[in-house]
Amino acid sequence: MPAPADSRDSLESFAVVARGVEKSFGSHKVLKGVDLRVEYGKVVCILGPSGSGKSTFLRCMNHLERIEAGFLRVGGQLVGYRQHAGKLYEMRHSEVARQRADIGMVFQSFNLFPHMTVLQNIIEAPIGVRGIPKRQAIEEAMTLLAKVGLTAKADAYPRTLSGGQQQRVAIARALAMRPKLMLFDEPTSALDPELVGEVLAVMKGLAAEGMTMVVVTHEMGFARDVGDSVVFMDGGVVVEQGTPSEFFNNPRTERARAFLGKVL
Ligand code: ADP
Ligand code: MG
């Protein structure tokens, strides 16, 4: 059971506040006390070796995993718990759904619905979850498709698109819910190298519009150019957090230096 909230962490300027977050799979402790703060309007890039707990941590933010200890707030609310008279209660399904609707997530593997067209993929949740009228949902979807450069693909099926196009649709689909926070888990790792740039360009555009983003990535150029801060995770903890120039030019820990030595 996570610890009750502390007033210092209730600050509304933070989209995410994590303190001492722990998560195990069986006897394997994967998150060993993760601390992180993400301010609204900022882009935080999470870097770190494979197996360090990056995906698990993102999944905890989005209710896909349940934390066992520590404190995790997204959008000012505890993830999965409601606080009342100093006690914690598990959220009802409807409350979880409401909290999740404000969080967009983009995965390495796109995860589009294969039996739906691009447009249908995008309008499904806004209509079904947000209750937006179909006409309006279509209008907004077309605006989003224009933004990701795929207006011509509205009626195409995902299998007919390149990986880069599918990932841009996945981003548009997440944005259609009007999220307050976007989580990206290695969004370009499954792409052929020549398709990486078009997805990063869309993400860069989003960042420029002020979207709050947490991006797990191996794209060091993106982290350096677009990140407001860089978080280095290793062994289930945040080892360093700083500005990109601090991190890349002057890593403070041996572990970060070793990691950068391999990836740069
Ligand atoms: P990263 O994204 O940094 O590569 P992950 O969060 O995916 O790391 O995984 C961290 C560790 O947790 C790995 O050792 C992985 O095998 C383990 N793990 C992740 N998800 C599960 C799961 N559902 N069941 C068991 N072990 C898992
Ligand atoms: Mg991962």
TrEMBL record:
Pfam family, one: ABC_tran
Membrane-protein topology: Peripheral membrane protein
GO cellular component: plasma membrane
Main location (coarse class): membrane
Highest taxon, organism lineage: Bacteria
UniProt xrefs under CDD domains: ABC_HisP_GlnQ
Residue ranges of every copy of the ABC transporter domain listed in the record: 16-260
Molecular-function GO term, any one: ABC-type amino acid transporter activity
Subcellular location: Cell membrane
Keywords: ATP-binding, Cell membrane, Membrane, Nucleotide-binding, Transport
Family, as annotated: Belongs to the ABC transporter superfamily.
PANTHER family listed in its UniProt record: AMINO ACID IMPORT ATP-BINDING PROTEIN (PTHR43166), L-CYSTINE IMPORT ATP-BINDING PROTEIN TCYN (PTHR43166:SF35)
Annotated protein name in UniProt: Polar amino acid transport system ATP-binding protein
Organism: Ancylobacter tetraedralis
